[in-house]
Amino acid sequence: MRIFFTGGSGKAGHHVAPYLASQGHRVTNADLAPLRHADVQDLRVDLTDAGQVYSAMAGTPTGADLDGPRRDAGTASAYDAVVHYAAIPSEFLAPDATTFSTNIVSTYNVLEAATRLGIRKVVFASSETTYGICFAQGERKPLYVPVDEEHPVVPEDSYAMSKVAGEVTARSFQARSGADVYGLRINNVIEPHEYEEEFPAFLADPSLRRRNVFAYIDTRDLGQLTLRALQTDGLGFQVFNVANADTSVAVTTQELVERFYDGVEVRRELGAHETLYSIDKARELLGYSPEHSWRDVLADPRR
């Protein structure tokens, strides 16, 4: 595929964009900052500018074979798919109004350009924060566990609000166009080197992870899921939780429920270290099969 990838220079994107390129796809990184990766073409685009987004997506992909055949002017986009990761990636990084407006305007511009240009596959980054737990004022517990995609999304913070609004916008563009538009509710993104740096504290004090529903997503498995979303057609509009198969702490899942979720409905039997952030839907519809775990790097202190 020829993939228009936004935010390829960010924490998640700088792993996922090269991974997609390594699988044989031509990837253009549309971002304000360059990635500077040998296998990914950089294109400086301000995604809050609708004209820039449309022009970039309608143009010939950077790195195209200039000696080969060129499409006729005025035809549909030369890209086969869009992966939209770009955003102000968290609360507390910019003023609230800036976070909300930047994220939703950029998402609108990307979706409008993609659907008007006839691109039939858009995969966009949503967030675990949509469930209203991560950045709540005070502690908020889920209504039930494991938290699946049917759980209500009622956030209090500007970042999560922008992600919920982005999902609503994406659903509307999908209804208009009939394209496949898949949202990824990505959990806390962890790079491989962060296991040794951050996880010892989580293993010593599980409460540090309650805002993330004790879950995480390894960037390598995020790459796998993004690829599977690109390869899976015909699902219309969908949202998927994205996490690894286990929790980010050493205590068992049952102990987590007893200690932190007293009174919360447990909807099914859970494995000994099974994530409380359900990935069943991604497994069933996309064939997602996470391969990585902090346990491959660190010794479990309870063993």
UniProtKB/TrEMBL annotation:
It comes from Quadrisphaera setariae. SUPFAM superfamilies: NAD(P)-binding Rossmann-fold domains (SSF51735). This is NAD(P)-dependent oxidoreductase. It holds the Pfam family Epimerase. Gene3D superfamilies: NAD(P)-binding Rossmann-like Domain. InterPro entries: Epimerase_deHydtase, NAD(P)-bd_dom_sf. Residues 4-198 form the NAD-dependent epimerase/dehydratase domain.
